Amino acid sequence: IPKSLEYCDGHQNYPEDGVFHGTNLTTVHWEDGVTRVVEYLFQGCESLKQITIPDTVIEIRYEAFSDSGLTQVVIPNSVTTIWWHAFENCLGLNTITFSEKLEKIDSGAFENCTGLTSVEIPDSVVTIESYAFKNCKNLDSIKLPKSLIALERESFRDCDALVEVIIPENVECIRNACFYDCDALTEVVIPNKVNT
Questions:
Q1: Do 1 and 32 touch, CB atoms closer than 8 A?
Q2: How many CB atoms lie within 10 A of CB 144?
Q3: Pseudo-torsion of CA 187, 190, 191, 194, nearest 10°?
Q4: CA gap 117, 61 in Å, rounded
Q5: What is the sign of the dihedral through the CA atoms of 72, 8, 20 and 115?
Q6: Are 150 and 164 contacting, i.e. CB atoms less than 8 angstroms apart?
Q7: Is 17 helix (H, G, I), strand (E, B) or coil?
Q8: pLDDT per residue of the chain (196 residues) written in tens, 0 to 9
Q9: How would DSSP label each residue in 143-164?
Q10: N or C end of the chain, less CB within 10 A?
Q11: 74 sits in which H/E element
């Protein structure tokens, strides 16, 4: 993948528009100095099980890996933003290692990643956007970061296996339906700063 690549055309309602959608792509080689994984690049690449993201990448753009066959992802410490729906519908994804400099997990970034069982979000993240982990049916353990200020709406909705959530002390806002239909949830610890 050349470092000059800045944009890929595609649309979330037409998954066949993913650049390599439906191919048997299994290996990716990157030019030195790549700074972004562009939108729709590996959307629908069901044969792509693993990938090494270069440590020069600062953002993973929207739907870059959605509907792909990834089973594990290591996000290098250079990455600060995971854009909306970047890994949505990666049903086999069971392991994520996040960048220690990650600031934002955008809307629906890991929505419908039903293979996830545990997530540890680094202390650099300030906001978890709407639907970020919605419908991660087997997610039974989450560690939220101390830096967190806001949990946006439906960010963990329909996480059926989630039993306990400890909201960090700096959180001020928990938006509507954040934990809606988390059927197994029996305990939530909410800090005094929460006002919304």
A1: no
A2: 19
A3: 180
A4: 24
A5: positive
A6: no
A7: helix
A8: 767 677 666 555 554 567 888 899 999 988 899 999 999 999 999 999 999 999 999 999 999 999 999 999 999 999 999 999 999 999 999 999 999 999 999 999 999 999 999 999 999 999 999 999 999 999 999 999 999 999 999 999 999 999 999 999 999 999 999 999 999 999 999 999 999 8
A9: E--TT--EE-TTTTTT-TT--E
A10: C
A11: strand 72-74
In the block, tokens 């996830």 appear at 116
Under 8 Å CB-to-CB from 13, ≥6 apart: which residues? none
Q: Which two tokens stand for residue 136?
A: 């991660």
Closest by CA to 159, choosing from 130, 138, 132, 131, is 138
Phi, psi at residue 59, to the nearest 5°? Answer: -150, 145
Whether the CB-CB separation of 87 and 70 falls below 8 Å is answered with: yes
